[in-house]
Amino acid sequence: MTDAMTPGPTSEDPVLAATGSVPNGPGEPPALDATHHASALLRVSDVRKVYGEGHTEVVAVADATMAVDQGEFVALLGPSGSGKTTLISIVGGLLSPSGGTVTLGGIDVTGLSKKDLTAFRAEQVGFVFQSANLVPFLTARENLLYVASLVKGTSRAQAQARADDLLEELGLAGRAKNLPEQLSGGERQRVAIGRALMNDPDLVLVDEPTAALDTAMGRQVVELLRREIKGRGKTGIMVTHDLRMVEYTDRVFEILDGHLTHVEEPSALRH
C-alpha cells in the first residue's frame, strides 16, 4: 500500500498544521475513546502492520485501537504516507495485520479463513475507492448487479429491483445504461456508492472519495455518503486528507506515521 510506504510529511503539511497530529496531542487518545464505546459495532484492537524485517522494517500501522458505533460515519484523517489506507484495508479484510484483532458485529475478522474472508468482504463490507474502480465494460446498472452476483442466495429479480432502487435514489436512473466512460466523475462516484451499498453491508469503507473531484462535487459526494450511511444505520469510515470534508462526519480519528494520535470532534479542527 503506497499510502504507508511513501515518505513522511513535512512540518509544512496543511493537515499537520491544522490538526496538531502528534502523540498526546489535543483531543482524546483513541484507546481511551474506545473504552467509551463498549457496544461498538466495529472494534480495532492493537492492530499492527509491518513490512520487511531488520534494517528494512517499515511499520505501516502501529498498535492502532479504535471503536466505531453502528450508525456512525467517522473520518480517518492524515497526510500522505500516514498509514490510513493500510489501516482501513486491514479493517475491510483486504490486508492481514501483523498483530492485533479486528471485530465487526462480534466476528473476529482477523481470524477468518481465506474462504470465509472472501464471503465476509462480499456480504458485510462495502468499498468506495478513490478512483471509483468501476468495471469499464459494464453499465452503471451492471456494475451494481455484478456485486450482487458474488453473494449466494440473492435472486436475480431481487438484485435487479435493488439496483434500480439505488440508482433512482442516487439520481442515476437515467444513466443506468451508460458505461463508466460516459459518466462524469461525480456520477462515477455515485455509482461506486450504489455498488458499495448493493449487498446491504454492515460496514462501508471509503478511500479518498473526493481526490479526483472539485470542491463543489466533492461536497455533494460526501454529503450523499453521510446521508446514505446514517440513513441506513450503517457504520462508515472515510479516509481523507481533505480537511474541508470532515465536517460531514461524527468524529475524526487522526493518524500520523502509522500511529492513531487522537480523536476530535469535526468542529475542533481548523479548516
3D structure, described in words:
- It is a single chain.
- With 271 residues, this protein is of the alpha/beta class.
- The protein has one domain (2-268): 3-Layer(aba) Sandwich (Rossmann fold), CATH 3.40.50.300.
- Helix content is 32%, strand content 23%.
- The protein has nine helices and ten strands.
- The chain has helices spanning 2-5, 14-19, 30-35, 84-91, 114-124, 140-148, 156-169, 185-197, 215-231; strands at residues 42-51, 58-68, 73-77, 99-104, 107-108, 125-128, 203-207, 235-240, 251-256, 259-264.
- The strands form two sheets. Strands 6-7-8-3-9-10 form a six-stranded mixed β-sheet. Strands 2-1-4-5 form a four-stranded antiparallel β-sheet.
- A hairpin with a 2-residue loop joins strand 9 (251-256) and strand 10.
- Helix 6 (140-148) crosses helix 7, helix 6 packs parallel to helix 8 and helix 8 (185-197) packs parallel to helix 9 (215-231).
- Mean pLDDT is 89; it is low at 4-11.
Short summary of the structure?
This protein has one domain (2-268): 3-Layer(aba) Sandwich (Rossmann fold), CATH 3.40.50. The protein has helices at residues 2-5, 14-19, 30-35, 84-91, 114-124, 140-148, 156-169, 185-197, 215-231, and strands at 42-51, 58-68, 73-77, 99-104, 107-108, 125-128, 203-207, 235-240, 251-256, 259-264.
Query: Please, how many helices?
Result: 9
CATH overall fold name: Rossmann fold
Uncertain parts = 4-11
Spell the H/E element sequence: HHHEEEHEEHEHHHEHEEE
**Outline:** globular
The named CATH superfamily: P-loop containing nucleotide triphosphate hydrolases
Integer-rounded radius of gyration:
18 Å
% residues in beta strands? 15-25%
CATH class: Alpha Beta
